Amino acid sequence: MKKILIATKNEGKAREFRAFFEPRDFKVVTLSELDDIPEIIESGKTFTENALIKAQSLTNALQATVVADDSGLMVDALLGEPGIYSARYAGDHDDEKNNEKLLQKLLTVPNGKRTATFHTSLVVTRVDKAPLIVEGEVSGEILRKLRGRDGFGYDPLFYLPNLGKTFAELTPDEKNEISHRGQAIKKLDEKFDDWWIDE
Ligand SMILES: O=P(O)(O)OP(=O)(O)OP(=O)(O)OC[C@H]1O[C@@H](n2cnc3c(O)ncnc32)[C@H](O)[C@@H]1O
Ligand SMILES: [Mg+2]
């Protein structure tokens, strides 16, 4: 059977990728199920470089097909911060502290200038191929206080003017329909089958 390793321990992400690969007859494993994972240093300067580093180094070490993604939030008034540093913006991987820091940084930024973009770079690697790379983005605004209980990370601050809701006020399906990761997975859907069979 075909097999793919999802380069994450994040269960939410793993679920989305399972829903993509299992109907294509892949056995899906995640990093949580492996014992000896090589240490990966995400030393890239862009989301795509980091996703490539994650996927390709696991493919090289394990001779496996791997999918990795790297995502984050870019805030215009902060010149793209926190960007590739989104997970550890406030020092350690703590969503509450990250959101608090973002609110502080934007305290004096007026409504209308609080625009932001979520980005995902998604990379699939296989031993005998050049990587498949797709990206997805969604635009919104950063609120002045948290709203909603679903999602994770910056979701309670990320407001979609068209919907009148934050990402944390959407169901997982509603969020996937429009999110940066959802967009990237749609592009993967357009390209993956050809990439897989192409010699
Ligand atoms: O590298 P892995 O193990 O997959 O996990 P990660 O936490 O680094 O995951 P990402 O690179 O995808 O995302 C980095 C940070 O960006 C934020 N983020 C990414 N996608 C998000 C989303 O859909 N909603 C809210 N915040 C998100 C969140 O703070 C993440 O910790
Ligand atoms: Mg990351």
UniProtKB/TrEMBL annotation:
Organism: Liquorilactobacillus cacaonum DSM 21116
Family: Belongs to the HAM1 NTPase family.
Subunit structure: Homodimer.
Cofactor details (free text): Binds 1 Mg(2+) ion per subunit.
MF (Gene Ontology): dITP diphosphatase activity; ITP diphosphatase activity; metal ion binding; nucleotide binding; ribonucleoside triphosphate phosphatase activity; XTP diphosphatase activity
Function of the molecule: Pyrophosphatase that catalyzes the hydrolysis of nucleoside triphosphates to their monophosphate derivatives, with a high preference for the non-canonical purine nucleotides XTP (xanthosine triphosphate), dITP (deoxyinosine triphosphate) and ITP. Seems to function as a house-cleaning enzyme that removes non-canonical purine nucleotides from the nucleotide pool, thus preventing their incorporation into DNA/RNA and avoiding chromosomal lesions.
Domain of life: Bacteria
Keywords: Hydrolase, Magnesium, Metal-binding, Nucleotide metabolism, Nucleotide-binding
GO biological process, one term: nucleotide metabolic process
CDD domains documented for this protein: HAM1 (cd00515)
Residue numbers binding Mg(2+): 70
Cofactor: Mg(2+)
Gene3D superfamilies in the record: 3.90.950.10
GO cellular component: cytosol
Residues involved in substrate binding: 8-13, 71, 152-155, 175, 180-181
Protein name: dITP/XTP pyrophosphatase
Enzyme class: hydrolase
Enzyme Commission number, as recorded: 3.6.1.66
